[in-house]
Design goal:
The chain has 302 residues and is of the alpha/beta class. The chain has 12 helices and 10 strands. The radius of gyration is 20 Å and the shape is globular.
Amino acid sequence: MIRVGIDIGGTKTHLRACDAAGTARELVMPTADWRVRDWDRDAAALLENVKQLVEGGHVAALAVGAHGCDDTSECEAFEAALARRATCSVKVVNDAELLPAALGYERQIGLVAGTGSIAVCRDASRGMMVAGGWGWVIGDEGSAAGLVREAGRAISLHLDCGGSFDEPLVRLFFEAFGIRSAARVGSSIARQGGAAALGYHAPLVFAACEQGSKLAGKVIRDGARHLAELAMRLKHNGAAADMVVAGGGVMVAQESLAAAFLAEIEVQSRGTLAARIFHGPPVEGACRMAEAMAEDWVPATQ
């Protein structure tokens, strides 16, 4: 009996299949290689990858955490598309929900700061509550893309006010984007065309901070504050959660962002919301979900 957990991130997709003996198989691939943002086509493509992973084995349960499934209707649409093609139990949630699930928590807040940023939990009736997830053009503060966008804003304001081009964040940003004029900061960001491409440059913000950049330090602190505000919005909207589990590529990779986020949660929640950083792969949460689903699975009669 095989259980499959899948974490679909904005940049990469991670599949893990576990059999009854505890043997695990993994497959990691760029999300852009298969996802086209059409429920039926995406379901067919994802199940082909599952088939490749399990090599003919029978799947009892499939749990998916999907970046971009940002409300109940979107989760249900993708779940239905998968269920029409699969012969097993299927569940689709937002990828942020995999984080508390990985630690065995139910109805707690999952917060992702990776390619994008979003906070998600479930209410008493299992309805989906969401804060953030607006996309890099108008939101996703604290994400990789959001940090780079806000670095560009900070640089532009700094130079408008007569600041030096020798400031570490300015220097590293101009080098990375190959620009020579302050007038080209915004257009250089826009030319990236998407969150993954823009977020690729996020390490330069943290490198600049390590080199003493006050601009970069403020961008990171502001990002952490906005991430904490996502969790607090859910609390203010009635979430019964007392824990937020945060993860995602930039949160896990950058200790300064994680530390600032934990400090902000403590301040903003006044001790009513505990916080943890999950350093493992989020697919662990999907596998836990699939395991629970498989316990209730009944094989179809032949």
